Structure formats: C-alpha cells, structure tokens
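Reopening this one. Same input as before:
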Amino acid sequence: MSDPRMPAEMEQWMRARNWSGHHEQWHVESRLDFWTALAAQGNPAAQEIVDYARQNGWSRAPQQEGAVGNGLEFLGMHRAMLELLAEAFPQHRHLLAGWTTPPQDPNAPDDIVPNGAPFELAKAEAVEIIEHQPATFNGEDEFGAFVETNLRPTASNPLARSPDPRTGIHNWLHNRWTDVESEVNLGDPTKNIFNARFWRLHGWIDTQWSRFRIATGLSDADAAYKALIDRHKDLMRHVHPHAHRPQTFSLERTGRRLAALQRFFADIPR
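Same output, byte for byte:
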C-alpha cells in the first residue's frame, strides 16, 4: 500500500515556502550528535550531513534534541506548522486533526505497517502515559522530550540515550512507517511533510500537548507561550534562503546524504 499524500494544493503551498528545507534544517541543527561525535570518529555518513549543513550556513541549535529546552521547541515548531496550514486550508483541517490514538494494529486499513511489525509493549505504555498521565511529567518541556526522542545528550556524551524504552515514540512511529522506496518516506525529513501520515502523527501529538496544558493549568494567553508559537510561525511564513541547494554536491553525494538522514532520523543503529 502506497503512502498517503497531502492534497496537491497543500503540497505546492509548502514547496513554494520551502517548508521541507526548513523542516530538514530544524532537525539537523537540533541533531548535531553526529557533528560532535560521529563525524569526529570518521563516520562518512555523518560527514556528508556535516559538509552539507556547513555549506548551507546551518549551525548548532541552542537546545539539542533530548536536551533541556528542546522538547518545548519541538512542540512549538510543529504546532506553528499545523496552525499555518489550517489557516491557509480550512477545508482540509480534518487532515491535520491527527489520530485519536496511534493505530497499534500493523494491518490497520489506513495505516498498514510496511514490515508488519507488532506494536512494542513499551511504546504502548508510552501512549497510555502521554494520553492519560500528565502528572508523570515535570513540565511541558519534559513532556515534549519524552514524546520526541530517546536521545539525552550530555557535555561528555552527545550520543547518550535514555534507558527508558518508552521514550521517543515520535521517532519510533516515524521509523515504524519508514519506506525507503516511498516518494514521501515518513523516515526522511527532507520529504515526509508531504506524507498525510506525518500530519496524523503530529496532529495526535499536538492534541496531547493541548490536553497536557489544560490538565496542568497552563493558559494559551501566557506571553511566553504566544511568543514561542509566533516565533516559529514567523520563520515558517517566509521562503527560506536555502531553498536553492548548493551545487557543489554531486548526485552521488546527495544520495548518500539523504540515505544517511533516513538512517539517523529513523534511529537505525549506525
């Protein structure tokens, strides 16, 4: 079963603003574990990404994936994308609502898992915690980190990961539907925003964030919250300067970089 795509007019709108490039940049700048460690170890796949990022003028984000502060940035950036799309295409809001809950049956009619793998028990527990146990988390940044990733980088070990197998359901679900043959592969940050399943996943996460905020007494009128969303919206409203890729990379090197990105962001062991 082929991956479901977003409507053509939404895809064209995102392409015109180079959202795919912005989405890739945001994640690459927040995943510099391979810059600081893998590239230094002579990992050629990491070096492809490092070289490409440097030529685009990208730099290390203040908060790295899994570190303090990044969980909230992750939630805010994706909410900004959802809200801008909903504003531009109110007729397609239903495509942004997300799953009621992630489908755990690998043969679910609308979400067949390519390799048919069963839903891991630890990740089923994560769904239960995210949906029904907000008191588990000490704030929304911790909530966002738990949802997003199992990376927990430290100054001495940028490759450190959480020992809790329930962490990182976002990355795990991207990996669950990864299909390297797909034109909108959910595991590839350079193209997955054109996959309707990307928005099912992020719509579900966004809804759970809203429920967390309500359960913990947080207000959308809060100035810091509004500034977070507005900052990310401002970034997403413009055509991004890296819309035209550097021409110094051969097709072979570009292919290696994209393959490396798919492996890193799908959390495939390297």
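So the earlier flakiness isn't reproducible anymore. For the record, The longest helix spans residues 196-215.
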